[in-house]
Amino acid sequence: MPNSLAQKKVVIVGAGWAGLGAAHHLSKQGYAVTLLEAGAQPGGLVAGWQTQKGRSVEAGIHGFWYPYNNIFSLTDELGIQPFTPYTHSSQYSPAGLEVESPIFQREPYLPTPLGTFIYTRFKRLPLVDRLSALPLLYSLIDFDNSDEAWKRYDNMTARELFKQYGVSERLYKESFEPMLLVGLFAPGEQCSAAAALGMLYYFILAHQPDFDVRWCRGTVGEMIFRPWVEQIEKAGGKILANHRVTDVRVGADNEIDAVICGDEVFEADAVIFSVGITGMKKIVAQSEVLRDRPEFRNLSNLGGIDVLAARLWFDRKIDIPLPSNACFGFHQTTGWTFFDLNALHDEYQNEPGSVVEVDYYHANQLLNLSDEQVLPLVQKDLAGCLSAFGDAKITDHAVVRIRQGVSHFAPGSYRYLLPGTTSFSNVYMSGDWIVTRHGSWSQEKAYVTGLEAANRVIDQLGSGGRASIIPVVPDEPHIQAARTVNRAVKNISQQILPDFWLP
Fold this sequence. Notes:
By secondary structure, the chain is an alpha/beta fold. It has 18 helices and 20 strands. It has helices spanning about 5, 15-30, 70-80, 115-120, 125-130, 135-140, 145-155, 160-165, 170-185, 195-205, 220-235, 275-285, 290, 295, 340-345, 370-385, 440-460, 475-495; strands at about 10-15, 30-35, 50, 55-60, 65, 90-95, 95-100, 120, 215, 240, 245-250, 255-260, 265, 270-275, 305-315, 325, 335-340, 355-360, 395-410, 425-430. The strands form five sheets. Strands 8-7-6-16-17-18-15-19 form an eight-stranded mixed β-sheet. Helix 2 packs parallel to helix 11 (about 220-235). The protein is globular.
């Protein structure tokens, strides 16, 4: 390794998917990487830990969807096999089982979006309601993840979008809003229509198998991040936990030349921020340097959403038909999911009783409750899906509360989201809330933006090979053709009547 390259110092803030992704690649390229993590261990929102009884817990269960090609490539590179097979899933309401989703890749392939609608097994939703979604397909054609498309749809709420295209009330309440509550973590009236279209298209509608999901066979922190961290450290990267960034230092030529954690100063030739919105706002609030820049100051217009995760151990085995389940209609503005960990996690396969994870999104009304207040509510919700939960006794539990823990893509928020580059010539951004044209979402998006940030560092500092990023699978030919026609019509209308219609 050339000595000149070893002198190139990169400081990365935040050890989640984005930060670890950037650190991994840059360490392999020979850079002196220092990764600063405010928490007790790497992982960010997917870090896992042990209870006092030595039982594994984490901040919610995270799915790994079929189009997560970059993450799957990473686990192959690490030589690990952390995932379950693809699983069936279901949805419950207070009326009982509503929807069963098959493994779509095993069904005969149908053109987008027919497979998703035809193969999904709705128990009570009438055909006339499902057909009311057809006009909505135009918006999915019109929304092509471009900057113009985001600006066009971002000021509208998701609920307004579905109403505008004539989606029935029942379809919205029983299908689309549950997807928003577990995909964007908020009810439709609080979600950007642009974010809703991007999320729904990526996970469900772009290609038939996209909704297929598998799960980690234990905590993500233990199964993926631990061996990943080992590889980063083996390549020379330093990962420092319990290091909360308090400021940055400006050097010459519009660069930040150091990141500060209390009394410690970490010099840098390049800096990558890889923290969530809430964490980034805290850093900006403390930093006079960052507060001086409008792009960082305007992050105050963004927010996060509260999450509560409860892991419960029961005194008996409960028959849970499918391992992953989403629930709607139990709470007006809160979505929730529950998982059979006996079926998903290796360590619980031989447990004498059921081990269940229950995750609540947009859980602001629950966060101030004690465990003793939360547990009966959780058990009541579970019993509303499967009555056997009502007679079971909770023998152990862990409740995790994460205030402002996940990104809130509120209407009008797009203008304040940061791109991968900043007004500092050597500072780059990554994370699931950063603007990218890749098209992915959630964990995959966070990891991809970490690789994109690493590539920007390499371009700036001029050493090493760029990370290979797998693009999303292209749209099917009929979708591409429809988008081409739509763009042509829009261009003509704009030439005839420029700036006439209210955007």
